[in-house]
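Predict fold of Helix-turn-helix domain-containing protein; 403 aa.
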Amino acid sequence: MFFDFSFKSSVLFVFFFHGFVFSILLLIKGLQSGNKSSIWLSAAVFLSVLYILPFMCGYGGWYARLPYRDVLYYVPFQQLFLIPPVLYIYTKSLLDKSFVLTPKEYIHFIPAAIYLVYSFIIFYTDKIIIKDYYYYQDGKDKDFSAWYQISGFISLFYYLLLSLKVYNKYKSLSYQMVSFADAIRFNWIKRFLFAFLLLLGLRALFFILNPEWDKFGSKFWYYLCVAVLFYYISISGYVTHLKSVIPLNTASIFLQDDADKNEVPTEDINKNQEPETVDLELKDFQQLKVQIEQVMTTDKVFKNPELTLLDVSHRINVTTKRVSQVINQGFGMNFNDFVNHYRTLEVIELLHTDRLVHFTLLGIALECGFNSKSTFNRAFKKQTRLTPKAYLEKINLKNGAKS
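Predicted 3D structure, encoded as C-alpha cells:
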C-alpha cells in the first residue's frame, strides 16, 4: 500500500497506532468488566483516531493519488458532530455506574446521523450518478468545510457545558448523600474535563491565530496537539478505569433528577430498603435534630468510613429527605461535613489521651472514620483552622507548660 513516511505523516502515525490500540484495550476491558464508561471512552478514542487519519494520510501523499484520494474524500472520518456527545455520554457513564442510554438521549446523535446521510448523498451523486467529481470539483475535502468545522466547534462547546453541569450536580449530591464525598470525587474526571476544555481552547486558538486555517498544510501542529491530548486521555482513562470501579458503586444515587426524592435507589449502597415514611409534620423538628445528634454521639455511627445518609435514616426510621433537611437547616451543614465534624471531634478527644502512644495520628483518624489522610487533613483544618500536626504541637506545648 502506498504511504509516504515523511516526518509529519510518521509522527501522526505513531499517535494513530497507539490510539487505535488503546481504543481496543478499553473496549475489551469494558466488555470484560461490564463498565460502560470504559466502552464509551473507547469510542471517543477511536473517533479521535479517525479525526487525525485524513491528515496522517494526507501528509503520506494520499490526496495526490487515486484511489486513496477518493477514500479520504468520501469517507467522513472527521465526526465533529459525534465526538462531543460521545465525550458527554462518557462523563455521565463515568459518574453513574447504572447509566443506561435511553431513547431520549438518542437525540444527541441526530446531527451526526444527518451528516452521514449528507456524505452518502455526495458519494452516490459523484460516483454512481454523474461518475465524475461534481461535489469535489474544487478538490477540497468536505470534512474541512468552514460550516462543518465551525458547527463542530459549537457542538464541542455545548457538550462541554453539559458535562460540567453533570459533574457539578454529581459533586453537590455526593456531599449531601455520603460521608466519603472526597473519595468519590476522583481527580480523573476533573482532569478529563480540563482536557475537554483544552481541546475546545485549541480549536478556538487555531481558528483565531491561524489566518490560513482552511489550508491543509498549515494544520500539522494543531493536529499534533490534538493527537497528544487524546493520547493522554486514552492512557489515563484506561488506568483510572482500573482504580475507580469500586467508588462508582454508589454513583447511581447522585444523578437523580430530584435530590429530594423520597425513594432513593439503594442497591449500590446496601441491600436494605428505605424505612417507612414518617410524616415530619407529626414530629417536632428539634426532637428529630436530637435523634440525629444521639446517633452520632452515642452510637458513633460516624466511625463507619462508608456511612451514608440512608444509613442514618434507617437508624431513626425517617426518610433520607427528612434527615437531609434537618441536617441542612438545623446544623447548617451538608451530610458530608456534618459527619466529618463528629469525626474531627472524636480525633481531638483522643489526642488529649495517651492514644498516640499506641497509634499514629493517621491511625487515630482512620479509627474515627476518615478514609484517607488528605480528607482528614482537610476536614480537621476546616473545623479547627489548624493542621493536625499544628494542633498536636499546640497540645504538647500546653502540656509542657503545665509540667
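Residues 7-251 form a domain with the Rhopdopsin 7-helix transmembrane proteins fold (CATH 1.20.1070).
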